[in-house]
Amino acid sequence: MESFPKRTVRYLPMAVNAGLIAFFVLITCCGSGDGGSATSAGSSACAGAHPTEGVSGTFSIVAVDPNTGVCGAAVASKYPAVGKVVPYVRAGVGAFCTQHWHNPPWGERALDLLAKGDLPEQVLAELLRDDPQRDKRQLAIIDMAGRAANRNPANADPSGIWWGAAAGRYYACQGNTLTGSEVIFAMARAYEQTQGSLADRLMAALLAGDKAGGDHRGRLAAGMRVAKKGVEGYWLELYADKSDDAVTELAKKYAALEHEAKGASDKRP
To answer: Is the pTM higher than 0.85?
Structure first.
């Protein structure tokens, strides 16, 4: 098994909002990431295969605000320009992330299926149905009603170390190649406990995941995409494509930004 450099884990203190109580669903696989004794057909199909689009060891969040009609996603990784290949959002539809053995063509396809009325679980099932690399995929999807679904890899690469997901009210966090489970839980707590708009809360979640350890390989890139009903395309998109401290750089860009997506609503759904 490969050895990896130790990273300093710092924790980001968050104010407690007693009005929000999360229900988390954690699905986790720990260890070398080779699936142990997994012998499923999907795992066998992945043996010896190579990703056509690359491997995005990453942590991300998808979220919606049904009250304001805003949806968004944020992501960070050592993978370059990760904000342009993992998260996809569409006004009035929802948000989707494709990671680990990511597949960018699925971004628009997933949102198309969601737009025609498929439930998030149905969308994931359709994408994975005939996919020989299904056990290498990590996916997250949420619709504008707040229905979310996650799919974790059953046979992540050896560098995976830890992967899993947690879902709460109108959001889902997921990641792979992480320093540990606290990355996901820190993101979930930050999203719930941060006052402000959906974009504010996405940024807080990304910062919290990064401070809790994030991607064990480093901090190269980060990004955020937000869409709003009535606005064509992305309402807000922000990227740090190559940086020594990408999430911090993204946060600085966000802090300096003048945009209606920032602090637009202190109301919670």
So the answer is: no
266 within domain boundaries = no
Q: Could you read off the pLDDT of 215-236 as tens digits, one per residue?
A: 777 678 999 999 999 999 999 9
> Which residues share a beta bridge with 174?
60, 165
For residue 178, the SS3 value is strand
What CATH number has the domain bearing residue 60?
3.60.20.10
Residue range of the domain that includes 225: 50-256
pLDDT at site 199: 98
Number of domains observed in the structure of the chain? 1
Sheet of 58-65, strands arranged across: 27-30, 162-168, 171-175, 58-65, 70-77, 221-228, 236-240
Those residues whose C-beta lies under 8 Å from the C-beta of residue 70, and which sit 6 or more positions away, are 64, 197, 198, 199, 226, 227, 228, 229, 235, 261, 264
For residue 7, tell me if it sits in a domain.
no
Residue 115, pLDDT above cutoff 90: yes
Which amino acid, residue 132?
P
Which residue type, as a one-letter code, is found at position 223?
G
